[in-house]
Write a sequence for this structure.
């Protein structure tokens, strides 16, 4: 059965007005750009919808960052959404774990032609163009933050005569470990339901779980907000032809792009060379960002004479790299430089030397390989009386954090013990 | 490991500097400041460990040429000989089997880095000069750090810095300054501010409701105002229309009265007057043109044209082109003829120059082609080359003869010198080297016997001390309590008690009884104490007897070793031909003799080498002479052959055989010149003929044209003047012809103009009559009256139209005009004015109400806008995240420092427990030798200090009791102890000492030298010093501690980049 071809945009996890994470330090101009980035990215999605003349837009949950029930964010969201509505584009929203309906104190009325799915049961909307049916859209919102039940079971079974059907859901398919396991379900559950396209949200990376009927798609978030969310972020432009063939294209909409770059400085002789190299890398990242701004975290690695010097001069280097960036429209902001360099000695052979430093290294090594690393380190930390003031923070340190602390202590100790004379 | 050769290609002030065969033991480098000591020290470090990349910019680039770098040859502890070469950054390690690799020696050969080397094997002036003035705490730290192989200053700085930074990060109680405390306080503040700001959304809903009410009210009021304004506008419209409407009615009446003139042609009056004027002007112009035509006809009749000339126009013009050529031909003819005669004479002279028998025919036969000339040039070159070669060969032969003569003289001289030198008794170098090794071995054994004797003496001393102590123990006689003492006490007690009973003094009796009992207990305790003391003394006696036994065993052992060593010495002595060896001076004598033999052998070898070289040179000279003779003969033969070939070639061509190739080229040039002259004569003859033909032909043409133009020629030799006359006649005829054509054209134009003007006048007259007819005028005056009336009718009509349009504009359209006209008829000005005033009052009141509502709306919108655009919450959330991140980073830094502190403490405890004792044991050995006292070093657990104690008296000295000299000696002993202990598990490296004697007093210098000499027994030591007396200090120390030659001392002087062995 032939249907009328149509286009729509599938996005999710806008996390509007959410503060960027992992920023150690900030400049007021840069901070303003970063705060606006989620809104501008959403504006880019709406502009794309208007340019492409799509029939509707689907936002699959986590429009807001949850804890932040900011009326200003709602207002800006409505303002942007209104552009789409004024261009005759229908919008469909579902709420996720970050903005569940129970905590949704919306004081602002949504613009007409915007449909918000309810949390009591799966809602259905028939989308038409000139009185001809394009698709059925089914969806459900979260009532509260922690939805532990499989919501897919509440979706209806599609009949043969039904038009192209889309399911909108914020969920974790297959228990993806990086994300909370809310509304857990499996690919099999989704396939059995018989719908043609699952517009999912919750996972912040773009993932095409299935590229044939039913299409199961995570668009990822529209704007990276921390160092874990690097690379392109945006939405999917979906085109359905008269034979129900689906063509899915990812379109980046992020305003600011996150990068993580590791640089080995062992072959560099002085700080100037390191700064030059970082500067070139920064410019390169700017050049590949397609006119966007970028936030960069550098990891410096390698055995080097510069180990201590670089650590001492870290803040000066950052200042140089940030110079004038706040005045640039397309800034490339160095968020931090994490120094994982080591002194220029071969630690494994230095460890064999029968002196005090060798003893120090051997002790550090035995701790690193200990089965009781966590308890050993925490024992050391809690032996200091002041630890009670930061007990919560110490408790939240992960195994990796503790290893990194041990590494840093070893490196710092070596720096001091083997430093050259005056 | 020791360094045996150093080669510096280019490094600082050094260039191409080698120091070879550096022995083990003590190597002293002395020299003035800036002479190159520090540069050499840096070179050794740089070769072994590379250049520190940013320490300082003095990287010792070559100042006197050479490639940056050099090499050292190392003898490793296991006997391998390895060369380390470093030109630039990378080092190359070369092994004995000729294999090599690019690698860092610090990683491949001895597994320690530059800094560890500095801490263990390098001791500088800076390490010592401050010790004397250090506080006891400073000494403690310095000595401790030295024993641990770390830099004390850095170590204590590290511990202080860690403590300080921890304090800056976190403090308990109400501390506000530490960073973590600050961040946590700010986070708490941000939390409360965010909570407060979230209340803003409730106000928002209330504001929105009131805004909707206000919008309704404003809409109603604005509609009311609009209705009233409409009525007001209508009244104003009626007032404006009233005057227009009255004027319109009056204009309508006037139009009816002037209606009779409405048929008058449009602009009829203007057209009538214009036509009248045009007709008059045209008639005047026609009369002028008719006069002009008559004058032109008269001029035409006066012009006459020469037809004959015109017909021959082309021929005359063609003749004019020949005019210049004819003049030239007539002038050149006699000159060319003279030229011909001159050339004929020149040709005859050139033939004569070539030879009497030369004529045109022979001239033509000579071959002057390029090939012939190349052949002649080849002959010239070959002959010249052969002649040059011949000359060189002859000169070379002369030189070789001289060389042979000189070489023979040198050979005779060398042979004579060799014959006059006595041949050495030993002729093999290896034999001398073997004997030297045996000497070295014997010396080493003597040194070991000395050491063993010292130990033996020490042991005998110990036995004596032990025996004395034992005797003193045995001499201790304890006062024995005799058994009768008991009986006496009892007897006295019983007697006194009996006496007391007898005198009935019971109290004193009881007291006496108690005294007796107490005395007995006292005696009992005394007895017990005596037994214990005796047992203790017996134990001590037994223990010391055991010690004496043990020492005696050791003495036996040492004596046996001494015996073994002596046997070794005798065996070695036999191997080099000495019967017996009782004194080390005999071996010195033997070695001096060996030195003499060695020197004789070197001199004999040198003379023999010289003789062999001279003989080789003579043989070479003889061979060279023979070769030179052959070359000279061959060159002469070649020259004769090429000359013969030339003679044959030239005679074949009919020339003299004596002509050389260079001269033959001149003959060929003369032949070519004569040939050119002959050709030129022929060309001149031909040119004279051509000129004569041309002149005759041109004269005939001129005569023919003159006849055709009826201008008969005056003579047969016509020329340029006739051509000029024909040209003048042609120009005159052509001028007249042109004038006639111009006049005819003007006449035709004038006649056409007259015809056109006549036609135009007739048309205008017809148009005038037509106008009169249209206006139905009887005559011209009548026409003018009707025209005036028509203009008035037009003005009236325009006025009517304007008023009508104004009325429509006011009303809006035709329909509205009707309604307006009706209302104008029905109303009057007074009633409308009253209505207008009332409306204006109502509008003003309603407007005030609207303004009030709008103001309230604006205020509400402002409040809503503030809520919607308030970025404070966003800013706070952002700051909260930043602060959380800062907290996380700072807590990790705090944890890193705490872990570091703990690691250092634990390492220190373990190091003290397991490693340090070895270092201190070694250091104790050194300190004993230096101080000649039975001192030993020990480190109390848990303290950063080293104690010195007398092993005999067990008396300890705290640092506070140390003299500056003792501190230095302890420090050096500990450093050397560390180097020694380190070398037990790793490759030992040479120890580098930089000016350690400077600023010490004489005793301290001597003490330090003693330590160094002792260490030099087992390590190669490089001492760098600018102190001129350093060598003397060391030699004094050698004498004082009796080391003599067992530690070799090698002395080099460094002066301005040159290293010389003393």
């Amino acid at each position: 059965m032939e249907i009328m071809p149509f286009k729509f945009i599938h996005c999710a996890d806008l996390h509007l007005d959410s503060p960027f994470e992992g920023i150690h330090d900030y400049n007021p101009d840069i901070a303003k750009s970063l705060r606006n980035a989620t809104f501008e990215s959403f504006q880019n999605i709406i502009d794309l919808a208007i340019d492409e003349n799509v029939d509707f837009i689907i936002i699959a949950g986590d429009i807001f960052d949850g804890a932040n029930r900011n009326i200003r964010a709602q207002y800006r969201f409505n303002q942007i959404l209104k552009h789409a509505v004024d261009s005759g584009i229908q919008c469909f929203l579902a709420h996720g774990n970050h903005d569940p309906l129970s905590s949704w104190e919306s004081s602002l009325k949504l613009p007409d032609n915007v449909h918000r799915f309810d949390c009591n049961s799966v809602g259905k909307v028939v989308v038409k163009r000139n009185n001809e049916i394009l698709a059925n859209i089914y969806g459900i919102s979260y009532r509260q933050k922690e939805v532990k039940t499989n919501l897919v079971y509440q979706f209806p079974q599609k009949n043969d005569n039904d038009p192209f059907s889309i399911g909108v859901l914020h969920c974790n398919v297959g228990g993806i470990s990086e994300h909370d396991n809310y509304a857990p379900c499996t690919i099999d559950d989704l396939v059995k339901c018989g719908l043609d396209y699952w517009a999912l949200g919750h996972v912040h990376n773009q993932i095409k779980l299935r590229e044939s009927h039913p299409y199961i798609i995570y668009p990822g978030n529209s704007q990276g907000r921390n160092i874990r969310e690097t690379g392109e972020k945006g939405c999917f432009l979906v085109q359905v032809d008269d034979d129900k063939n689906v063509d899915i294209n990812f379109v980046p909409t992020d305003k600011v792009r996150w990068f993580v770059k590791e640089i080995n400085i062992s072959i560099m002789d002085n700080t100037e060379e390191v700064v030059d190299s970082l500067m070139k890398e920064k410019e390169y990242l700017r050049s590949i960002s397609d006119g966007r701004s970028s936030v960069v975290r550098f990891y410096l690695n390698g055995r080097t004479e510069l180990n201590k010097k670089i650590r001492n001069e870290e803040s000066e280097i950052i200042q140089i790299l940030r110079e004038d960036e706040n005045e640039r429209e397309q800034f490339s902001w160095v968020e931090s430089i994490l120094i994982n360099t080591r002194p220029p000695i071969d630690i494994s052979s230095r460890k064999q030397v029968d002196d005090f430093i060798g003893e120090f290294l051997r002790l550090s090594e035995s701790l690193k390989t200990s089965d009781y690393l966590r308890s050993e380190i925490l024992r050391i930390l809690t032996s200091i009386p002041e630890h009670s003031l930061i007990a919560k923070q110490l408790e939240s340190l992960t195994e990796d954090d503790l290893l990194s602390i041990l590494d840093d202590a070893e490196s710092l100790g070596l720096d001091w013990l083997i430093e050259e004379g005056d | 490991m020791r360094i045996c050769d150093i080669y510096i290609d280019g490094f600082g002030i050094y260039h191409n500097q080698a120091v070879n065969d550096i022995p083990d033991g003590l190597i002293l480098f002395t020299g003035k400041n800036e002479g190159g000591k520090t540069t050499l020290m840096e070179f050794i470090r740089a070769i072994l460990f590379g250049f520190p990349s940013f320490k300082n910019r003095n990287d010792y680039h070559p100042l006197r040429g050479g490639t940056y770098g050099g090499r050292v040859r190392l003898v490793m502890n296991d006997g391998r000989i390895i060369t380390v070469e470093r030109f630039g950054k990378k080092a190359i390690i070369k092994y004995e089997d000729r294999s090599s690799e690019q690698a860092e020696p610090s990683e491949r050969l001895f597994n320690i880095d530059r800094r560890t080397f500095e801490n263990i094997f390098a001791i500088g002036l800076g390490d010592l000069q401050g010790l004397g003035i250090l506080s006891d705490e400073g000494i403690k730290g310095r000595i401790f750090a030295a024993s641990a192989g770390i830099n004390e200053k850095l170590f204590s700085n590290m511990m202080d810095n860690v403590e300080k930074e921890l304090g800056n990060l976190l403090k308990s109680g109400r501390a506000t300054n530490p960073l973590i405390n600050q961040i946590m306080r700010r986070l708490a503040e941000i939390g409360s501010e965010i909570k407060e700001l979230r209340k803003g959304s409730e106000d928002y809903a209330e504001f929105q409701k009131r805004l909707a009410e206000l919008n309704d009210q404003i809409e109603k009021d604005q509609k009311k105002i609009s209705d009233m304004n409409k009525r007001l506008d209508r009244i104003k419209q009626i007032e404006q229309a009233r005057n227009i409407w009255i004027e319109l009615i009056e204009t309508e009446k006037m139009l009816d009265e002037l209606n009779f003139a409405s048929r008058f042609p449009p602009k009829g009056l203007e057209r009538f007057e214009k036509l009248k004027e045009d007709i008059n002007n045209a008639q005047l112009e026609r009369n002028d043109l008719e006069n002009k035509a008559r004058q032109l006809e008269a001029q035409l009749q006066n012009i006459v044209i020469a037809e004959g000339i015109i017909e021959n126009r082309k021929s005359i013009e063609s003749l004019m082109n020949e005019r210049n050529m004819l003049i030239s031909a007539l002038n050149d003819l006699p000159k060319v003829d003279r030229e011909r005669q001159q050339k004929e004479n020149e040709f005859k002279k050139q033939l004569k120059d070539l030879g009497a028998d030369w004529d045109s025919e022979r001239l033509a036969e000579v071959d002057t082609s390029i090939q012939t000339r190349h052949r002649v040039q080849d002959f010239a070159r070959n002959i010249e080359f052969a002649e040059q070669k011949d000359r060189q060969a002859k000169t070379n032969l002369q030189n070789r003869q001289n060389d042979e003569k000189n070489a023979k003289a040198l050979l005779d001289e060398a042979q004579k010198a060799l014959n006059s030198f006595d041949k050495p008794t030993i002729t093999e170098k290896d034999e001398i080297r073997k004997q030297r090794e045996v000497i070295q071995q014997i010396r080493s054994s003597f040194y070991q016997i000395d050491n063993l004797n010292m130990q033996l003496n020490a042991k005998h001393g110990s036995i004596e001390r032990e025996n004395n102590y034992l005797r003193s123990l045995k001499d201790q006689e304890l006062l024995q309590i005799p058994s009768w003492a008991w009986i006496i006490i009892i007897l006295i007690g019983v007697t006194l008690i009996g006496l007391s009973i007898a005198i009935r003094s019971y109290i004193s009796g009881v007291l006496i009884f108690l005294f007796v009992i107490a005395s007995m207990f006292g005696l009992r305790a005394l007895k017990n104490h005596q037994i214990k003391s005796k047992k203790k003394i017996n134990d001590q006696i037994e223990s010391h007897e055991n010690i004496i036994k043990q020492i005696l065993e050791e003495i036996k052992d040492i004596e046996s070793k001494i015996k073994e060593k002596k046997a070794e010495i005798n065996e070695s002595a036999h191997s080099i031909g000495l019967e017996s060896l009782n004194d080390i001076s005999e071996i010195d004598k033997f070695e001096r003799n060996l030195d003499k033999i060695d020197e004789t052998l070197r001199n004999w070898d040198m003379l023999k080498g010289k003789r062999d070289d001279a003989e080789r040179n003579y043989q070479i000279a003889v061979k060279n002479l023979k070769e030179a003779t052959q070359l000279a003969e061959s060159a002469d033969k070649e020259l004769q052959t090429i000359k013969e070939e030339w003679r044959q070639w030239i005679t074949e061509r009919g020339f003299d055989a004596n002509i050389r190739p260079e001269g033959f080229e001149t003959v060929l040039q003369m032949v070519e010149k004569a040939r050119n002259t002959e050709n030129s004569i022929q060309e001149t003859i031909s040119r004279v003929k051509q000129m004569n033909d041309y002149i005759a032909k041109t004269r005939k043409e001129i005569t023919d044209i003159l006849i055709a133009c009826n201008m008969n020629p005056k003579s047969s030799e016509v020329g340029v003047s006739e051509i000029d006359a024909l040209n003048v006649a042609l120009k005159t005829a052509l001028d007249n012809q042109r004038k006639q054509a111009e006049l005819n054209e003007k006449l035709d134009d004038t006649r056409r103009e007259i015809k056109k003007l006549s036609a135009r006048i007739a048309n205008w007259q017809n148009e005038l009559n037509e106008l009169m007819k249209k206006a139905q005028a009887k005559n011209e005056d009548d026409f003018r009256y009707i025209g005036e009336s028509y203009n008035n009718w037009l003005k009236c009509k325009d006025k009517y139209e304007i008023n009508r349009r104004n009325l429509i504009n006011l009303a809006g359209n035709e329909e509205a005009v009707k309604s307006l006209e009706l209302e104008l008829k029905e109303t009057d000005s007074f009633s409308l004015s009253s209505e207008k005033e009332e409306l204006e009052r109502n509008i003003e009141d309603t407007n005030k109400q609207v303004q009030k509502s709008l103001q309230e709306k604006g205020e509400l919108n402002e409040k809503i806008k503030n809520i919607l655009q308030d970025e404070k919450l966003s800013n706070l959330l952002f700051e909260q995240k930043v602060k959380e991140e800062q907290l996380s980073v700072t807590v990790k830094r705090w944890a890193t420092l705490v872990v570091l502190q703990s690691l250092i403490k634990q390492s220190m405890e373990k190091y003290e427990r397991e490693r340090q004792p070895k270092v201190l044991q070694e250091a104790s050995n050194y300190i004993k030798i230096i101080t000649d006292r039975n001192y030993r070093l020990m480190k109390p657990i848990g303290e950063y200090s080293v104690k010195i104690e007398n092993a005999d008296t067990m008396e300890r000295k705290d640092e506070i009791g140390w003299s500056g000299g003792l501190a230095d000696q302890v420090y050096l002993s500990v450093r050397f102890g560390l180097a020694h202990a380190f070398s037990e598990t790793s490759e030992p490296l040479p120890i580098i000492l930089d000016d350690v004697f400077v600023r010490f007093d004489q005793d301290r210098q001597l003490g330090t030298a003693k330590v160094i000499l002792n260490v030099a027994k087992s390590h190669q030591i490089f001492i760098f010093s600018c102190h001129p007396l350093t060598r003397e200090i060391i030699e004094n120390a050698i004498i004082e501690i009796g080391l003599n030659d067992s530690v070799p001392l090698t002395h080099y002087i460094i002066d301005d980049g040159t290293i010389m062995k003393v």
In short: Chain B has a mean pLDDT of 81. The longest strand of chain B covers residues 2-11.
